[in-house]
Specification:
By secondary structure, the protein is an alpha/beta fold. Helices cover about 25% and strands about 20% of the residues. It has 13 helices and 25 strands. The strands form 7 sheets. Strands 10, 11, 12, 13, 15, 17, 18 and 21 form an 8-stranded mixed sheet that branches. A hairpin with a 2-residue loop joins strand 6 and strand 7. Helix 7 packs parallel to helix 11 and helix 11 packs parallel to helix 13. The longest helix is centred in the C-terminal third of the chain and has 23 residues. The chain starts with a strand and ends with a helix.
Length: about 550
């Protein structure tokens, strides 16, 4: 039997439809089990994470304690295993609240009766089984199973990768550019036991990443032991390569790990939670259009647990503007999990043309083929005419603004800034992104070639590198990490707004290059927080000084 994989991606290589799956094809999927003590978990999140500077702030819980409090009951776990055996599924791994298993499509049809047909798609190094964008219905699940993950996905989108065959390039963003713009110095010392991670569904090129370190004059290395999941030197995924390389660029001295080999987000998040040696922060460059609360609750629960354990999750905000998957046709479609109140969502900026001088003493990454590398300058929101996309951003249809964000969201809505027609978006929703970083014309090495890449898939790993530096400072000062980033960053912005580079130019109206933007709506940047670039981009030395004096 050949294996089919169902994975959720915000942006990756173009998928090729191979036809309908046979009943003998095998799917790797995850079931979430009924959990207890959700009131305890919500209270811990509120007191330990959201109540910054409160009496229990950063009083993080151990993995064992979280599982003891919230894991599935023994009867439910036994029932779930018996259910899997009865339907011919093979359990490949388990955690206190999930089971990961393999099952033939024939058995899946019998057990779950999905309303959609499985098809085989081809990606470099992968066979996947997506369905249509319509969320399929399943038969009534047993009471001890709350959700099934990894059977279905939305259509793959293609990220933008510019090369010399396209239009002449205006400027390139090198690691030196990132460090100059964000005031990152190589003197920043890092705790020896701290690392940041990149979640990837596709194979990373270890040689590509190490060539990036060499050509960029960076003191970094990706070792085989740092990669959990697939790697390839024949056809590495540009998404995975870019994620690792952007964290190397922003985090001098930080070890970077790759957390991959998963088929759905709940499997990834649960594995991370239960790994005692895992990174304190990870970046996620994948997502789907926001679904109903019942479809997102299972992942949100694991994200809460990660936060209570002191972990920070950074998520790309999307590469299709405010409209998202709907394009310019009708109601906006926010990106998930960027809209989750338990993550830090990251938008993208570009260097304003003409604002930055050519980089002095550029590294070997800055070849004539990729355009001149620039130094620090003025940033603006990414645009379709330069970066070929705009940042996902707007307001959730499902979640309200968290307590740490409500004031700045209200400030934006009451500022008098031009807003899109009311029927297209939810003014009462959680605003996203929270922050931003360079996501246009970033230099990346993939398949041994340097080129410009971009997307919020580039900006999120930049921020996870920055957060690694701030976490290191917190560990040195207090012996504890900072935990989830968003609540503390909003607190920091309220105390020291000068630690953020405020982005006041640009919008996210036209979703992508080639769209008829005359019919598009979206949001515009303004002073302070906005649903295009969030609070802005980092001034890292200022942030380090703030952390050291604040703790």
């Amino acid at each position: 039997m050949r294996a089919c994989f169902a994975i959720a991606c915000l942006a990756t290589a173009t998928a090729e439809l191979l036809g309908e799956c046979s009943n003998d094809d095998v799917v790797h999927f995850t079931i979430s089990l009924r959990q207890g003590n959700m009131e305890w978990l919500a209270r811990e999140w509120s007191e330990v994470v959201e109540d910054v500077k409160g009496p229990r702030w950063r009083d993080f819980q151990t993995m064992a304690k979280i599982n003891e409090k919230t894991g599935a009951s023994k009867p439910d776990m036994s029932s779930a295993k018996e259910w899997a055996r009865t339907h011919g599924f093979t359990i490949v791994s388990s955690h206190p609240d999930t089971l990961n298993m393999l099952g033939s499509i024939s058995n899946i049809k019998t057990a779950l009766q999905p309303s959609e047909t499985f098809h085989r798609y081809s990606l470099p190094g992968r066979r996947i089984v997506p369905t249509t964008i319509k969320e399929p219905h399943l038969k009534q699940l047993p009471e001890f199973i709350t959700a099934v993950h990894g059977l279905f996905k939305y259509p793959f989108l293609t990220r933008t990768r510019r090369n010399k065959a396209q239009a002449p390039l205006k400027a390139s963003i090198s690691p030196q550019t990132i460090r100059q713009q964000y005031n990152i110095t190589v003197q920043n010392s890092v705790m020896g036991n701290i690392s940041v991670g990149q979640m990837s569904f596709c194979p990373v090129g270890i040689n590509d990443c190490n060539q990036f370190c060499k050509d960029g004059n960076l003191n970094c290395e990706l070792k085989a032991s740092d990669v959990k999941g697939p790697s390839s030197e024949v056809k590495p995924c540009d998404e995975a390569d870019m994620d690792v390389q952007m964290s190397f660029a922003a985090g001098p001295g930080l070890p970077v790990t790759v957390d991959g080999g998963f088929t759905n987000l709940v499997e990834w998040a649960t594995s991370w939670l239960n790994d005692p040696n895992a990174a304190l922060a990870e970046s996620l460059s994948y997502g789907t259009p926001e679904s109903t609360k019942s479809q997102t609750d299972s992942l949100n629960t694991v994200l809460m647990k990660l936060g209570v354990a002191g972990k920070a999750v950074f998520v790309s905000s999307g590469d299709a503007g405010a409209a998202g998957a709907s394009g310019c046709n009708g109601k906006f479609n926010p990106d998930w999990p960027a809209t989750s109140p338990y993550v830090t969502a990251v938008g993208a900026t570009q260097s304003t043309p003409g604002s930055a001088s050519p980089l002095k003493n550029p590294s070997n990454l800055c070849t004539n083929e990729v355009g001149p590398c620039v130094g620090s300058g003025v940033e603006e929101a990414v645009s379709t005419n330069l970066s070929m996309f705009t940042s996902g951003g707007g307001f959730s249809d499902v979640y309200s603004p968290p307590s740490w964000q409500s004031d700045v969201v209200m400030g934006y809505l009451s500022s008098g800034v031009r807003l899109p027609p009311a029927g297209l978006w939810n003014k009462n929703g959680r605003g996203y992104p929270d922050i931003a970083a360079f996501g246009g014309q970033n230099l990346v090495i993939n398949e041994k070639k340097v080129g410009q890449d971009g997307g919020t898939s580039a900006s999120s790993p930049i921020w996870v590198g920055v957060w690694g530096l701030l976490n290191s400072a917190a560990l040195k000062k207090s012996g504890k990490p900072l935990g989830p980033a968003a609540p503390y960053l909003y607190y920091m912005h309220g105390k020291a707004p000068h630690c953020f580079n405020d982005i006041v130019t640009g919008d996210n109206m036209c979703p992508f290059e080639g769209a008829d933007c005359r019919a598009c709506n979206g949001f515009v940047t303004t002073k302070g927080w906005d649903p295009v670039t969030g609070l802005g981009t980092p001034n890292v030395q200022c942030m380090l000084s703030f952390v050291e004096s604040d703790l």
